[in-house]
Model the fold of this input.
Amino acid sequence: MPSQAGPHPTEFQLSVGEGKILQFKKKPQIAAVAELVWNALDANATLVDVELRREWDAITQIVVTDNGQGMTPERARAAFEGYGETWKTGKTHTEGNTRILHGRNGEGRLYALALGDRFTWESVAEVDGRLVGVWISGNADHSTVWQAQETAPARDRTGTTVRIDVPQGKTLRGLERQDTAANLTAKLAFYLRAYPDVSVTFDGKRLDPSDIIVGEPIDLPLNLPEEYAQEDPAPVVTFVEWNQRMSDRRMLICNADGIALYEQGREWSDSIVSFTPYLRSNLFNDISVDDLHGLPMSHGGLLDAAVKAVQEHLSLRGAQISAEVVRQLKEEGIYPYSGPPTSGTQAIERQTFDVVVTVARDALPAKGAARRLSVSLIQTALESSPSDLHTILEKVLALSDEDRRHLKNLLDSTDLTHVIEAATTVTNRLNFIGALRKILADPHLRKDLREVDQLHPMIAKNLWLFGEDWNMAMSEVGLTSVLQAHLEDQLGEDVVLENQLETVRQPDGRTGRVDILLFRSRRDDSSTERLIVELKRPTVRVGKKELDQIKGYARAIVDDPQYSGVDCKWRFYLVTYEYSDKILRDIRQKDKPEGLADDHHDYEVWVKSWGEILDAAEKKLLFFQRQLNYEATDERVTQHLRESYSRFIPEALAEGSQNGAAASDNSSETTSTLRS
Done:
């Protein structure tokens, strides 16, 4: 507290209730600082300094100092005691017509409640050629009670110092962000450009719009409703682009001079362009706070026209920036695409790449191998694993949290990555179908294929072959004992549960030739389904014996006391390379789907050849295949096998040897046998 001279402090109560005052505690912190700066500028200050005092990296006090005209004791008391009334009411310029006025609503000082709990204003003004001082204080715990006192001048020139004490435990994240100074600059931009002799400093940094503005502000013409036809000049949106990300992105409502009065509408979110739109109009020159809050009602047509103009310009500007980024990558020889897209998938992938690399343009290394690698990683992720894209942007490119969030919102809203993921899934499935045909149709590869450690793991990774719902099904450990209990009695010693395959070894250490029982389960709130698949060796030709065995096994499992009476649907599949004509009547019954050999309310038994399974799966993908203009050529499926299933395929095919090449030639002749 300053040394006191003259009368003791006088206490007074604000002319408005506490509820009205306390709403200012919820104001944005950066807006609160802006209001304190505006108060200084409205007092004709040419120097305004916002100091953030810290202890242990925490802000403990905010001090705003200016060299303005200060407050006389009479004006200070009148300003603080009243609400919604100020000497600025009805005026357009500061005293002496020096500069444009900002505030006219008598609220600015109360924004301090958003920043701390104790406040003091210490001001010096000139009255009749002499300096006079005034000291005013308030406390957030008694928000309507204030004290004022005339004091000896605390300085040898006019000006005001505002001190706001920040209570322990209160966080001011809005002032600690990296873009806080830039956001404050955006709010003051037009003013600082109009009055270059004015200097505002925030936390040691002078605010200069020229440091963050890209190019020159652009006035966007508005397609206005008829009611605004006579406005002269017509309302306009001034689009200002920044060279760094802004966290505060609402449209600023401004008077005709661009002085920001109010933030309107939703936050603009754009991953490519950082900007602020300023809606400027004479209509807002003398508008009250209540009228500003009611803009959607009173000027809804104007706001809609402004939003549409911004959206159109954003689309154009984003395309311009993206084209420039792509052009630069092409000049450097690191753009990963050449020629026009050959399919819809490639077109979508390229479009997504252009968006991603444009958003990440500032995070990309400037040059050299690191830049080339970063571009290649983005392209690879989009091509094969779009879900890894965010990891690459975070770990490799060090893209900021804000930019990653914007990019995620953009990609999620446009569904581009989902389309690419779906396209990748379809092409991978087509490749797998073609690859399995290649192996099974060729007698040499089929002979070399081992069921235990090759065929089984490939099928286990692709259970969508038996229905899309099984793709995410889980192995049910509890099934093991029941399945094992009936195994030898019903199916014989040559059938092994998939989770017991490690016990099947030949003397040379290689896995033996057995049939495999694969099992999965899935549940939801209302039902349980279980899938049991017996994978027969390609050398086994399924006939009456094998069919009777799987039927008996299915009935034994369903009738087992552990599952008897349980609400569950079982599906048993006997899958083979070839089956005997003697069971055709069993699996081709009238009014039943082909392959269904035993049909009951709680279980089904199916017999399917690999050719039938692959044909059915391929037909489901046919529509997408046509849309993607994709063909699973021999070269593609072989490459897919080597890249995705190198551990599970015959050695000749994995090594790409001449035997593998011969097998490839043979497969082209015999693939048709799997389609019959």
Summary: Residues 1-5, 657-676 have pLDDT under 50 and may be disordered. The longest strand covers residues 118-127. The CA atoms of residues 50 and 508 lie 81 Å apart. The two ends are 97 Å apart (CA to CA).
